[in-house]
Write a structure and sequence with these properties.
The complex is a heterodimer of chains A (447) and B (523). With 447 residues, chain A is of the alpha+beta class. Chain A has seven helices and 24 strands. Chain A folds into two domains: 135 residues, Cathepsin D, subunit A, domain 1 (Beta Barrel), CATH 2.40.70; 258 residues, Cathepsin D, subunit A, domain 1 (Beta Barrel), CATH 2.40.70.10. In chain A, a hairpin with a 7-residue loop joins β22 and β23. Classes of the chains: A alpha+beta (447), B mainly beta (523). β1 of chain A pairs antiparallel with β1 of chain B, so a sheet runs across the interface.
């Protein structure tokens, strides 16, 4: 009897893992990508594109970290928008080479939606599908987005990102914890049997239009309790979407930045072609001088992206000038020790941005799963991140990480990756922060 | 790299433990085994048990190999039917024979000597069959437990029989280990310079005597891993300079002590009828991870080749080491069966079969993260490596006679044969294996009422392996690059499997000496 029980249990445990799931094939080498134009007629620094094999054809596929779903249309897109259908299929991703289109990754047995995504960047860049977050979140995905259009952008698929946050910071990376978001409720409310989707949208906290900074500039003072008062710029919440080119802002976000929104919005201006919206979106084109993507959470105690950025800059100034009397400002000290400086990636300058209506399909789509009161203000596109390389680590930690660096040789005004600076006031400890030489303890300023 | 969402590890090779009828018999005596089994015996179902064991052995393809320790516990006396603390490893059900309290401490000294004579290669292609010759390379490894992190080749256990029907034990041992070091600039550098890999198991065992003749046991455990691997990467593979040391980057990857443990479990049954005892056991691979061990290699260093733009990757960030890495590989699960026939009151005959599922150990994958900026990739150094292993399941068969001419003395002679865990074409300096033969002798003295001391020696001789058609193909790297890294091209599939490396064709010899000492205290 017991032997039978043993045998039965053995079989049960042995068979428990026999169901077949998706199979992924990749080699963790960079995959050359094509780029869509940022705007009609604009430079090819926009959405990241690859080719996909569909029978004998090799149409374009947009790789969009901002899309919750992956799709590949089977057949010819009709004028009318049909009801989306989900199916289990394959994406055979082809790289873009001058002489051939090699198979560079395969995602077999994955859930795909039969949707016509339309155009991205301009009307001539028609794509047959989207490689979205639902598939990408199985990996740690690295993107290199050169500033020069002649250099190909690349995507590299890794199984993991093994380094700890502190090791990455010590090696010069700005590490930001990301809260993956997704329209779970909307996606699972599938009256037509559509499958649910996991949360996979990367949302980053951003300070828009902060003033320029140099550690050689004048000191910024800040008394206790003034950390938010001393912040400059506008706090935004932006989704990271490599399926878009420019920065996209909602009209209300642009108004918070001090911009004007013409009425009607986008009249006489190029439309925005988004993989998250079926139809072109009327857009008003503006420029944003500078963005800082800041690590932090949305808890009540968090002062906001701009306040964290200002604190990081004050701490950097103090450390750079400690031999000339630099000291930690009272608002940056708690319990007698300086607070850590949050990681941030600052990018500039004068980046094109598309301002779209708050009620547009794109902004509505981004906010479907957000609770009332919270608001995703837009999208950080691939053009905005030109000159950076980053890795979205969906797998190593439960919440995910966004790990960014500037391309070698970048000057501070166009790209500056500032890792989190830990424990600055630890007695006797020396650290490298902000690219400065190993530093000791700076004093606290008098109250 | 191919990832399956759910990998069907067991689906192809399910081997159910055979059913068999169970008799009942009162009264299990305690160790040592020889003394214990001098009782009246019947053998009504013995043939059936033997047949069961034979079926179990024959139902599957062919274990023990280059990673596992075939002599956990004492060398020469431990088996799936041995009722001492080594049962935590061999078969936890046999713990059910434990009476009173017991403490065991064992240590082995295992010396491995490997000789690699690489075949000449073509100086223009790197393929075998040319005029470039290599000197003979020698690798040495000495495993002993007095090290930190602990192990390998040690055993420490304490346990007790409780209320006649239960036994509890806790033990630490090293079921898997590999230690081998070649000279720094040897011809084996692209496959291995040195390796020190250990899996320390900390296990609690529980056995329950269901009937007088049947015990079941389970031993859940933690597996603490340590690793240090050094090899070279040819950054100009497939180029005109074949195996040029100037283009070799050194990867020196090590954990910082032992890693957070993974979990595994050993379970088994033990049955006794008349003069026969049968033990069947299963030891799992790490649970919850598909058998995968993930090692954070926190003390990793990558030295760029002489031709690179920098000689120190870490100079830009001002601290060293500046490379983080993680290594992943599979460990096998192990099925063990043992039969003991108490032929006379002084003589036991023991047969042991182990089936080690090395087929899961197909590759080691390594991901590295270097400093920002130029970093690894910018210096032509790969940040994702696949080291092909391509192991196959292996059989470890041993026959043993245990003779106890005196109450205070017994000795054993064991002949062990182990099939190769590495197919011939896959043999390389990091994975040397072939058909092995191992004679072993062991003695045990009982000193007083409480102390037993056992000592043993084993000589493991591997039948020399000559690799003609090595699976490693240096031309594949260039061919894959020419195919624009098309995954469907044969060259890229070779590269993806970790086989795009300098050829490992040549002859391989291995000799291993094991000296073991075990102390048992019963109280």
């Amino acid at each position: 009897m017991f032997a039978r029980l043993f045998t039965t249990l053995s079989l049960v445990f042995a068979f428990a893992g026999c169901s077949q799931g998706p199979v992924f094939e990749y080699d963790s080498l960079p995959i050359d990508l094509q780029r869509a134009p940022t705007t009609p007629g604009g430079p090819a620094l926009g959405a990241t594109l690859a080719r996909v094999r569909t029978g004998a054809d090799t149409p374009l596929l947009v790789i969009d970290t901002g899309s919750l779903l992956s799709s590949l249309h089977r057949g010819v897109c009709s004028a009318a928008t049909p009801e989306p259908v989900a199916y289990t299929g394959d994406i055979q991703l082809l790289g873009v080479s001058q002489t051939s289109m090699p198979l560079r990754a395969a995602f077999r047995g994955v859930t795909l939606f039969d949707i016509c995504p339309g155009a991205v960047g301009d009307v001539s860049t028609q794509v047959a599908g989207v490689l979205g977050g639902d598939i990408l979140l199985n990996f740690s995905v690295a993107f290199a987005l050169p500033r020069v259009p002649a250099q190909p952008a690349t995507m590299t698929i890794y199984g993991n990102l093994p380094a700890s946050d502190s090791d990455l910071a010590a090696n010069g990376y700005a590490v930001m914890r990301i809260g993956l978001r997704g329209s779970t409720e909307a996606a699972t409310a599938s009256a037509n049997g559509l499958p649910g989707l996991p949360s996979s949208r990367v949302v980053l906290r951003v300070c828009a239009n902060p003033p320029a900074f140099s550690p050689d500039g004048p000191a910024q003072t800040c008394q206790a309790g003034e950390v938010e008062l001393q912040a400059s710029g506008t706090n935004l919440l932006l989704a990271l979407s490599t399926g878009h080119g420019p920065l996209v802002l909602s009209a209300s976000a642009w108004q918070r930045l001090g911009g004007q929104v013409p009425a009607p919005l986008g009249a006489g201006e190029p439309a925005l072609y988004s993989p998250l919206a079926t139809d072109p979106i009327p857009a008003h084109w503006v420029t944003v001088s500078r963005l800082a993507l800041v690590d932090g959470d949305s808890g009540d105690a968090w002062p906001g992206a701009c306040a964290e950025l200002a604190r990081g800059r004050r701490i950097e100034w103090t450390l750079a000038n400690q031999n000339n009397g630099g000291c930690f400002q009272p608002c940056d000290v708690s319990g007698g020790v300086a607070l850590p400086a949050a990681a941030y990636l600052e990018i500039g300058s004068d980046m094109p941005a598309a301002v779209v209506s708050d009620t547009s399909d794109l902004i509505s789509n981004l906010n479907e799963d957000f609770p009332s009161g919270a608001q995703v203000d837009g999208v950080i596109g691939a053009e905005t991140l030109a000159g950076t390389s980053f890795e979205i680590d969906y797998v190593s930690q439960s919440q995910g990480r966004w790990v960014a660096a500037c391309e070698p040789g970048a000057d501070r005004q166009t790209c500056w990756a500032s890792p989190r600076c830990y424990g600055l006031s630890s007695s006797g400890q020396k650290q490298m922060c902000f690219g400065l030489a190993p530093l000791g303890l700076a004093p606290n300023c008098p109250q | 790299m191919v990832d399956g969402g759910l990998r069907p590890r067991y689906c192809e090779h399910l081997n159910a433990v055979d059913n068999f009828d169970m008799g009942t018999r009162k009264g299990f005596p305690n160790p040592p085994a020889m003394v214990r089994h001098r009782q009246s015996r019947r053998a009504p179902h013995a043939a059936r048990f033997l047949m069961t064991a034979a079926l179990l052995a024959g139902a599957a393809p062919a274990l023990a190999g280059p990673l596992d320790d075939p002599h956990v516990g004492s060398l020469g006396f431990s088996s799936p039917t041995t009722g001492d603390l080594t049962a935590v490893y061999w078969n936890p059900a046999a713990l059910g024979m434990l009476q009173g309290n017991q403490f065991m401490f064992g240590a082995s000294l295992r010396s491995t000597h490997v000789t690699v004579d690489r075949a000449p290669i073509d100086p223009t292609t790197g393929l075998p069959g040319g005029t470039s010759v290599f000197p003979s390379a020698s690798g040495h490894g000495l495993e002993q437990p007095m090290a930190w992190p602990p192990g390998p080749a040690g055993f420490l256990g304490v346990g007790a029989g409780v209320a006649r029907r239960f036994a509890l034990a806790i033990a630490a041992y090293t079921p898997f280990s590999q230690k081998l070091s070649f000279g720094v600039a040897t011809p084996t550098r692209y496959h291995l310079v040195s390796v020190d890999s250990r899996q320390l198991a900390l296990v609690t065992g529980l056995a329950i005597e269901l009937t007088d003749s049947l015990q079941v046991g389970v031993a859940p455990g933690l597996l603490f891993s340590y690793g240090h691997l050094v090899f070279d990467e040819d950054t100009a593979l497939g180029g005109p300079s074949v195996e040029d040391p100037n283009t070799a980057a050194r990867y020196d990857l090590a954990t910082d002590g032992t890693q957070a443990p993974s979990y595994f479990v050993v379970g088994g049954i033990h049955f006794r009828r008349a003069a026969w005892e049968v033990g069947l056991a299963y030891s799992s691979a790490p649970l919850g991870s598909g058998g995968t061990v993930k090692l954070a290699m926190e003390r990793s260093q990558v030295t760029p080749p002489a031709t690179a733009g920098t000689s120190d990757l870490c100079s830009t960030v001002g601290h060293s080491p500046c490379v983080s890495s993680e290594m992943r590989y599979h460990l096998p699960d192990i099925f063990t069966a043992g039969v003991t026939w108490h032929a006379t009151s002084h003589l036991d005959a023991v047969g042991i079969v182990r089936w080690v599922r090395y087929g899961e150990y197909d590759r080691i994958t390594i991901r590295l993260v270097g400093p920002s900026g130029t970093g690894l990739l910018g210096n032509g150094l790969p940040d994702q490596l696949v080291l092909y292993r391509g192991f196959q399941d292996s059989w470890d068969l041993r026959a043993r006679l245990v003779h106890a001419p005196l109450r205070w003395f017994r000795w054993s002679g064991t002949l062990r044969m182990e099939t190769s865990a590495v197919p011939e074409a896959n043999v390389n300096a990091a994975a040397v294996d072939g058909l092995k033969l191992e004679p072993a002798l062991a003695t045990e003295f009982t000193l007083g009422r409480h102390l037993r001391i056992a000592a043993g020696y084993a000589l493991t001789w591997m039948i020399p392996v000559t690799v003609g058609n090595s699976v490693f193909n240096p031309a594949a790297a260039a061919a894959c690059a020419q195919a624009a890294y098309d995954l469907s091209s044969p060259a890229c599939q070779t590269r993806q499997a970790g086989q795009a490396l300098p050829t490992a064709a040549g002859s391989y010899k291995m000799l291993q000496h094991t000296l073991a000492l075990m102390t048992t205290v019963s109280f």
